[in-house]
Amino acid sequence: MIERAEWAGRVVQMDHPLIRHKLSILRDVRTGAKDFRELVKELAMLMAFEATRDFQLAQTIVATPITETTTHVLAGKKVAVIPILRAGLGMVDGILELMPAARVGHVGLYRDPETLEPVEYYCKLPEDIGEREVMIVDPMLATGGSASAAVEFLRARGARSIKLLVLIAAPEGIERVLADCEDVTIYACAVDDHLNDHGYIVPGLGDAGDRLFGTK
Length: 216
Fold this sequence. Notes:
Elements: E1 11-13, H1 17-27, H2 33-51, E2 57-63, E3 68-74, E4 79-85, H3 89-98, E5 103-104, E6 106-111, E7 118-124, E8 133-137, E9 140-141, H4 145-156, E10 161-169, H5 171-180, E11 184-191, E12 194-195, E13 201-202, H6 208-213
Parallel strand pairs: 1-11, 4-5, 4-6, 4-8, 8-10, 9-10, 10-11
Antiparallel strand pairs: 2-3, 6-7, 12-13
Helix pairs in contact: 1-2, 2-3
Protein backbone atom coordinates (compact mmCIF):
# COMPACT_ATOMS: atom_id res chain seq x y z
CA MET A 1 0.00 0.00 0.00
CA ILE A 2 1.22 3.53 -0.79
CA GLU A 3 2.47 5.29 2.34
CA ARG A 4 0.46 8.48 1.94
CA ALA A 5 -2.32 9.10 4.40
CA GLU A 6 -4.58 10.78 1.85
CA TRP A 7 -4.30 7.79 -0.48
CA ALA A 8 -4.94 5.13 2.16
CA GLY A 9 -7.47 2.56 1.07
CA ARG A 10 -7.77 3.95 -2.46
CA VAL A 11 -4.34 3.23 -3.96
CA VAL A 12 -2.76 -0.22 -4.01
CA GLN A 13 0.84 -0.53 -5.20
CA MET A 14 1.91 -4.09 -5.90
CA ASP A 15 5.46 -4.98 -4.93
CA HIS A 16 5.57 -8.70 -5.70
CA PRO A 17 9.07 -9.72 -6.86
CA LEU A 18 7.77 -11.02 -10.20
CA ILE A 19 6.02 -7.72 -10.87
CA ARG A 20 9.11 -5.69 -10.00
CA HIS A 21 11.32 -7.91 -12.18
CA LYS A 22 9.05 -7.78 -15.22
CA LEU A 23 8.50 -4.06 -14.84
CA SER A 24 12.26 -3.46 -14.94
CA ILE A 25 12.49 -5.23 -18.29
CA LEU A 26 9.44 -3.35 -19.53
CA ARG A 27 11.08 0.00 -18.78
CA ASP A 28 14.30 -0.88 -20.64
CA VAL A 29 14.61 1.04 -23.90
CA ARG A 30 16.17 -2.07 -25.48
CA THR A 31 13.01 -4.17 -25.00
CA GLY A 32 11.35 -4.67 -28.40
CA ALA A 33 7.65 -4.64 -29.25
CA LYS A 34 7.17 -8.43 -29.09
CA ASP A 35 8.67 -8.77 -25.61
CA PHE A 36 6.98 -5.56 -24.51
CA ARG A 37 3.54 -6.96 -25.44
CA GLU A 38 4.22 -10.21 -23.60
CA LEU A 39 5.36 -8.39 -20.47
CA VAL A 40 2.30 -6.12 -20.44
CA LYS A 41 0.05 -9.17 -20.76
CA GLU A 42 1.88 -10.98 -17.93
CA LEU A 43 1.81 -7.96 -15.64
CA ALA A 44 -1.91 -7.45 -16.23
CA MET A 45 -2.52 -11.08 -15.27
CA LEU A 46 -0.52 -10.67 -12.06
CA MET A 47 -2.36 -7.46 -11.24
CA ALA A 48 -5.71 -9.18 -11.67
CA PHE A 49 -4.94 -11.46 -8.73
CA GLU A 50 -4.79 -8.47 -6.38
CA ALA A 51 -7.67 -6.59 -8.00
CA THR A 52 -9.99 -9.58 -7.48
CA ARG A 53 -9.00 -10.19 -3.86
CA ASP A 54 -12.33 -8.79 -2.59
CA PHE A 55 -14.53 -11.02 -4.78
CA GLN A 56 -17.04 -12.93 -2.71
CA LEU A 57 -17.18 -16.74 -2.55
CA ALA A 58 -20.05 -19.19 -2.15
CA GLN A 59 -19.88 -22.73 -0.82
CA THR A 60 -20.44 -25.68 -3.12
CA ILE A 61 -20.02 -29.44 -2.96
CA VAL A 62 -17.83 -31.31 -5.45
CA ALA A 63 -16.98 -34.97 -5.82
CA THR A 64 -13.25 -35.61 -5.91
CA PRO A 65 -11.90 -39.02 -7.01
CA ILE A 66 -11.85 -39.88 -3.31
CA THR A 67 -14.97 -38.36 -1.76
CA GLU A 68 -17.34 -35.41 -1.71
CA THR A 69 -16.04 -32.20 -0.17
CA THR A 70 -17.28 -28.70 0.53
CA THR A 71 -15.31 -26.04 -1.33
CA HIS A 72 -15.81 -22.55 -2.75
CA VAL A 73 -16.57 -20.86 -6.07
CA LEU A 74 -17.01 -17.25 -7.08
CA ALA A 75 -20.39 -15.97 -5.98
CA GLY A 76 -21.76 -15.00 -9.36
CA LYS A 77 -19.40 -12.07 -9.86
CA LYS A 78 -19.63 -10.63 -13.37
CA VAL A 79 -16.68 -8.64 -14.71
CA ALA A 80 -16.17 -6.11 -17.49
CA VAL A 81 -12.68 -5.20 -18.69
CA ILE A 82 -12.58 -1.76 -20.28
CA PRO A 83 -9.32 -0.81 -22.01
CA ILE A 84 -8.67 2.84 -22.77
CA LEU A 85 -7.68 2.77 -26.44
CA ARG A 86 -5.19 2.12 -27.68
CA ALA A 87 -2.55 1.14 -25.14
CA GLY A 88 -5.08 -0.43 -22.79
CA LEU A 89 -5.64 -3.20 -25.33
CA GLY A 90 -2.29 -4.70 -24.32
CA MET A 91 -3.61 -5.55 -20.86
CA VAL A 92 -6.87 -7.25 -21.85
CA ASP A 93 -5.66 -10.73 -22.81
CA GLY A 94 -3.80 -11.25 -19.54
CA ILE A 95 -6.95 -10.60 -17.53
CA LEU A 96 -9.11 -12.70 -19.85
CA GLU A 97 -6.83 -15.69 -19.33
CA LEU A 98 -7.83 -15.60 -15.66
CA MET A 99 -11.47 -14.63 -16.24
CA PRO A 100 -12.47 -15.81 -19.72
CA ALA A 101 -16.16 -15.08 -19.09
CA ALA A 102 -15.50 -11.36 -18.60
CA ARG A 103 -17.03 -9.00 -21.13
CA VAL A 104 -14.84 -6.43 -22.87
CA GLY A 105 -15.86 -2.86 -23.64
CA HIS A 106 -13.79 -0.07 -25.16
CA VAL A 107 -13.29 3.61 -24.47
CA GLY A 108 -11.46 5.66 -27.08
CA LEU A 109 -9.73 8.82 -25.89
CA TYR A 110 -6.90 10.93 -27.16
CA ARG A 111 -4.98 13.63 -25.36
CA ASP A 112 -5.08 17.09 -26.89
CA PRO A 113 -1.39 17.99 -27.38
CA GLU A 114 -1.99 21.60 -26.38
CA THR A 115 -4.29 21.29 -23.35
CA LEU A 116 -3.30 17.70 -22.39
CA GLU A 117 -7.04 17.12 -21.77
CA PRO A 118 -8.86 13.97 -23.03
CA VAL A 119 -11.21 13.96 -25.99
CA GLU A 120 -13.66 11.05 -26.42
CA TYR A 121 -14.03 9.52 -29.87
CA TYR A 122 -15.46 6.05 -29.08
CA CYS A 123 -17.31 4.24 -26.30
CA LYS A 124 -18.83 0.73 -26.55
CA LEU A 125 -19.79 -1.10 -23.37
CA PRO A 126 -21.65 -4.27 -22.33
CA GLU A 127 -25.38 -3.59 -21.98
CA ASP A 128 -25.38 -4.79 -18.37
CA ILE A 129 -22.41 -2.64 -17.34
CA GLY A 130 -24.22 -1.57 -14.16
CA GLU A 131 -24.29 -5.17 -12.93
CA ARG A 132 -20.59 -5.82 -13.47
CA GLU A 133 -17.36 -5.27 -11.59
CA VAL A 134 -15.61 -2.87 -13.96
CA MET A 135 -11.85 -2.86 -14.48
CA ILE A 136 -10.59 0.08 -16.51
CA VAL A 137 -7.12 -0.77 -17.82
CA ASP A 138 -4.40 1.48 -19.21
CA PRO A 139 -0.62 0.98 -18.88
CA MET A 140 0.07 4.58 -17.86
CA LEU A 141 -1.65 6.99 -15.47
CA ALA A 142 0.03 10.28 -16.33
CA THR A 143 -2.02 13.47 -15.95
CA GLY A 144 -5.07 11.48 -14.94
CA GLY A 145 -7.26 13.27 -17.45
CA SER A 146 -8.04 10.25 -19.60
CA ALA A 147 -8.67 7.96 -16.64
CA SER A 148 -10.97 10.47 -14.94
CA ALA A 149 -12.85 11.02 -18.17
CA ALA A 150 -13.21 7.27 -18.73
CA VAL A 151 -14.65 6.84 -15.24
CA GLU A 152 -17.16 9.61 -15.84
CA PHE A 153 -18.18 8.17 -19.23
CA LEU A 154 -18.79 4.80 -17.60
CA ARG A 155 -20.69 6.32 -14.68
CA ALA A 156 -22.95 8.15 -17.12
CA ARG A 157 -23.72 4.83 -18.79
CA GLY A 158 -24.61 3.08 -15.55
CA ALA A 159 -21.34 1.62 -14.22
CA ARG A 160 -21.18 1.56 -10.43
CA SER A 161 -18.26 -0.57 -9.18
CA ILE A 162 -15.06 0.62 -10.87
CA LYS A 163 -11.37 -0.20 -10.39
CA LEU A 164 -8.50 1.35 -12.34
CA LEU A 165 -5.55 -0.91 -13.19
CA VAL A 166 -2.35 0.76 -14.45
CA LEU A 167 1.23 -0.41 -14.72
CA ILE A 168 2.90 2.91 -13.89
CA ALA A 169 1.33 5.97 -12.26
CA ALA A 170 2.50 9.52 -11.69
CA PRO A 171 1.53 11.19 -8.39
CA GLU A 172 -0.19 13.94 -10.38
CA GLY A 173 -2.43 11.41 -12.11
CA ILE A 174 -3.29 9.66 -8.86
CA GLU A 175 -4.22 12.94 -7.21
CA ARG A 176 -6.52 13.90 -10.07
CA VAL A 177 -8.35 10.58 -10.22
CA LEU A 178 -8.85 10.53 -6.45
CA ALA A 179 -10.13 14.11 -6.53
CA ASP A 180 -12.42 13.66 -9.54
CA CYS A 181 -13.73 10.14 -8.98
CA GLU A 182 -15.39 8.85 -5.83
CA ASP A 183 -15.30 5.17 -4.92
CA VAL A 184 -12.57 4.25 -7.41
CA THR A 185 -9.56 2.19 -6.29
CA ILE A 186 -6.31 2.53 -8.23
CA TYR A 187 -4.04 -0.51 -8.64
CA ALA A 188 -0.50 0.20 -9.84
CA CYS A 189 2.73 -1.75 -10.26
CA ALA A 190 4.78 1.39 -9.60
CA VAL A 191 4.31 5.03 -8.64
CA ASP A 192 7.00 7.11 -10.34
CA ASP A 193 8.47 10.51 -9.51
CA HIS A 194 6.67 13.14 -11.59
CA LEU A 195 5.52 14.31 -15.02
CA ASN A 196 7.83 16.22 -17.33
CA ASP A 197 6.84 19.32 -19.33
CA HIS A 198 5.39 17.13 -22.10
CA GLY A 199 3.16 15.13 -19.77
CA TYR A 200 5.32 12.00 -19.78
CA ILE A 201 5.95 10.01 -16.61
CA VAL A 202 9.53 10.18 -15.25
CA PRO A 203 11.31 7.78 -15.26
CA GLY A 204 8.40 5.94 -16.90
CA LEU A 205 8.87 3.80 -19.98
CA GLY A 206 8.08 6.16 -22.84
CA ASP A 207 4.90 5.95 -24.92
CA ALA A 208 3.26 2.62 -24.04
CA GLY A 209 1.12 2.55 -27.18
CA ASP A 210 4.06 3.09 -29.50
CA ARG A 211 6.12 0.43 -27.73
CA LEU A 212 3.25 -2.06 -27.79
CA PHE A 213 2.50 -1.68 -31.47
CA GLY A 214 5.86 -0.68 -32.89
CA THR A 215 4.79 2.80 -33.97
CA LYS A 216 6.20 6.27 -33.36
